[in-house]
Design brief:
Largest sheet: 8 strands, mixed
CATH class of the largest domain: Alpha Beta
Structural class: alpha/beta
Shape: globular
Oligomer: single chain
Helix content: 25-40%
Strand content: 15-25%
Strand order of the largest sheet: 5-4-6-1-7-10-2-11
Number of helices: 14
Bound molecules: zinc ion
Radius of gyration: 21 Å
Number of domains: 2
Order of helices and strands: HEHEEHHHEHEHEHEEEHEEEHHEEEEHHH
């Protein structure tokens, strides 16, 4: 990140900004003492140069290509499509890991999974990585999170660190919805209530919705199957899904869940706009990963590979001064870029290790092809992603056993690997091999780690996770 770049941005206007600037000396607060991490590990941060509020929205299991703003032909996202007109749309955003807790850990820390240490779904964020909420709280922000996915519960994930409010309430099991999931309406209402308060200082709110995650159960009016494509006969379906043999019905239900989430987000952000708060607020909309419908061998799920259906995520950034509005950014970006982007936008320097970098520079040069971002899956796969290429390494014993190269412009479905020769490919291979070197730890027993994480689950948690398809 280059904090100097932030100075070139126009200073947004607004009463809250003016008030907070006047009160700035009061914001030089101490470091919160106990949020679950090691005391004293947090850097002392100053005050933000531009104390904007920050709304981070992540939607679980939301593949980019099922949104209108990314070219989908079904009307799944009328609110986002309209909102994105005043924002920058990053066309090549990727998750570093197609699995919830590792991906969210990257979003909250700016680190790849091998650095923050959360490699699998049941793992808890360790005490060392510093989170965005911790940094912003130390800088005087009011912090709150509203999460819908059971695995983001504070006792599972440890993501509550740095949040003064961590709303992870889940409805008890209901007869018509036998899984622990909070629907978009409930999560957004809780967030809306908090957002409507008179905060008197800048705030950071993280809202994570769960709706597009399986089981797909949108309100009836939000889905309409079109056509018929058979499912593999041996596919494991939950009780509520039994009897559905049409892939198109599942996709229509998935799309309906997106439509439902989009409506609720529209109401929540609309309330911010009506109250004038949006003019002092940075909004970032993204997802933890996508979903696959059999394109590369995974059906109605995610987590097993690094192909685009699960890896390509939306990334829409609305700056309060509208810089970058309407831009379609080519450069590859990743969830590891979220923290550095927010810090640059508010003009706050924190001396914390981060793998990502701020994406704000791309607002000024959206056609620049940018650099490279990486994906990983335990110690089985690594991938390097540029604006139009992907190189996937299959690992054996920590070594690269195979390389598959894809031209994403000519072959967006990643159907046919091509020879990784010619201009640019050798650089990409070198970067990927370097990432393999840095990210594979031969001494780490990942199986034991995953086993240990599973063993700490109680029986209630096991039942809930089974219902969500995680176990
Ligand atoms: Zn997820």
């Amino acid at each position: 990140m280059n904090p100097g770049e932030a100075g070139e941005m126009r200073r947004p206007r607004g009463n809250l900004v003016a008030l907070v600037a006047a009160l700035a000396p009061l914001l030089l607060v101490g470091i919160p003492e106990d949020d679950g991490g090691h005391p004293g590990r947090l850097p002392r941060v100053g005050r933000p140069q531009r104390p904007l509020s920050v709304l981070l929205i992540s939607v679980d299991t939301l593949r980019a290509d099922h949104l209108g703003v990314y070219g989908y032909d079904r009307p799944t996202s009328p609110w986002l499509d309209s909102f994105a007109k005043g924002a920058a749309v990053f066309e090549n955003a990727t998750t570093p890991r197609t699995c919830t807790t590792p991906a969210v850990s990257s979003m909250l820390t700016g680190l790849y999974p091998h650095r923050h240490g959360v490699r699998e779904i049941y793992q808890r964020l360790g005490p060392d990585p510093v989170t965005l909420a911790e940094i912003l709280r130390a800088a005087g922000y009011e912090t709150a999170a509203f999460v819908s996915n059971y695995v983001l519960r504070r006792d599972f994930s440890g993501f509550d660190r740095g949040f003064e409010v961590y709303d992870d309430r889940f409805p008890s099991r209901e007869p018509d919805r036998p899984v622990h999931e909070r629907v978009a309406k409930d999560t957004c209402e809780a967030a809306r209530e908090w957002l409507a308060r008179d905060h008197g200082r800048p705030w950071f709110a993280w809202v994570h919705l769960m709706d597009p995650h399986r089981p797909y159960r949108p309100p009836e009016r939000f889905f309409e199957p079109r056509g018929f494509r058979p499912l593999p006969p041996d596919l494991h379906l939950s009780r509520s899904e039994k009897g559905i043999d049409n892939l198109e019905e599942f996709i229509a239900r998935y799309d309906g869940e997106i439509r439902f989430a989009d409506r609720e987000l529209g109401r929540m952000v609309g309330a911010l706009k009506s109250s004038g708060v949006l003019s002092d607020t940075l909004v970032l909309f993204t997802a933890d990963h996508g979903e696959e419908f059999g394109e590369h061998g995974q059906w109605l799920g995610h987590g097993t590979n690094v192909f685009e259906p699960c890896a390509h995520i939306p990334f829409v950034l609305r700056m309060p001064d509208r810089s970058g509005a309407g831009a379609r950014v080519r450069a590859p970006v990743s969830l590891v870029d979220v923290v550095p982007t927010v810090l640059e936008a508010i003009g706050l320097h924190a001396n914390v290790e981060m793998a990502g970098s701020s994406v704000l520079r791309w607002l000024r040069s959206p056609d620049d092809p940018g650099g490279v971002r990486f994906l990983e899956r335990l110690d089985a796969l690594r991938a390097a992603r540029t604006a139009d290429r992907k190189l996937i390494a299959t690992l054996e014993g920590g070594e690269v056993a195979r390389l598959d190269a894809f031209d994403l412009r000519g072959d967006p479905a990643e159907a046919k690997p091509i020879p990784a020769t010619g201009l640019g490919w050798s650089d990409l291979e070198r970067w990927l091999r370097d990432f393999v070197q840095r990210s594979v730890d031969p001494g780490l027993d990942l199986d034991a780690l995953v086993r240990a994480s599973r063993e700490r689950l109680g029986s209630e948690a096991r039942r809930a996770l089974q219902a969500l398809g995680y176990l």
